[in-house]
Structure formats: C-alpha cells, structure tokens
Amino acid sequence: MKEEFTTSARRWYDKDPVLSSAMKTLEESDDDTQIKIALNLIKIITEHNIEDSKYEDVSDIISQTEIDLQDSRQNRWYDLDGTLRTAIGMLQNCPDSTRHEIAVEMARMVVEEMKKNEADEVDTEETDSSIDEQIERLDETLRAQESQND
Would the pTM count as exceeding 0.70? Predict the structure, then answer.
C-alpha cells in the first residue's frame, strides 16, 4: 500500500515524507545508531539555527528545547533516551523549510550508519544509488505537493 502524506498527518513529522521515512528508519535502528544520529542532529540543528540567526547561541537553543520538553508527553519511542528526545525536540522546533533540509541530511545519516552496521551483508554501491533515488523521489513528491497547495 502506498503511503499518503497529508497536512492532517497523525504525527508532526509525517507531514514531510523524507522526515517521516527517516524517523521510521531511526525508530527501527539499534540504540547506538539512535544516539549517534541524535548527537549529529543536535550539532546540525544548532548550526542551522545559529546561521539563521533564530538564536544567538547554543544556550538559547537548549533553553527553548528544555521548555518545550517539559511541556510534552513522555511516552513516544524517542522519549526513552534524553539525548534522542532532545534532538527530536529540537528538530520539531525548527521552521518547516529548515526541518526539511535537516530531514534530508538525517535520512542520509541514518542510512550511512545502518550501512556501516551491515557492511558485510550488502553491496554498498547498489545500496547508495537506491537510497539516493528514494530520497530524491520523496523530496520531489513533497515539493510537488507543496506547489499544488500554493
């Protein structure tokens, strides 16, 4: 069955097919992979937010994330680890355009980390092109949906 991505998605990250796919893959990955990706996400999100001048420094970003995390539920799959919860909370607070850019980077990070873990079992060149094609198709789908909504 083909997944449909609508603006009335159940979860905040299902509105972006690339992000939704990356989150699903991240959820299904092992704990070590999740932590590595979370740490990279925190770094990337911090860099994007400071570049966009949304926050003056890292402490502003962390303060805002902590406020948001205090108010939210704690029964989601990514709430089990503080680092992962912080990274996903930071991602959720990003503007949509920034979130999409980060989602593409996140998808690549998740896939690369999983490839490292499964390097002995798969032909990596074939996997690389297949993954890049899937990410590009999801990205094109999202952009087409956005242009139809405008």
Answer: no
CB 141 within 8 A of CB 17: yes
Helix (H) or strand (E) holding 36: helix 31-51
C-alpha dihedral sign at 44, 70, 15, 38? positive
Distance linking the first and last C-alpha atoms of the chain: 27
Question: Which residues are within 8 A (CB) of 30 and not within 5 positions of it... i.e. 6 or more apart?
Answer: 117
pLDDT digits (tens, 9 = 90+) for 4-47: 444 556 888 998 898 998 899 899 988 988 999 999 998 888 88
The tokens for 83 are: 């680092």
- C-alpha triplet 96, 103, 43: angle, nearest 5°: 100
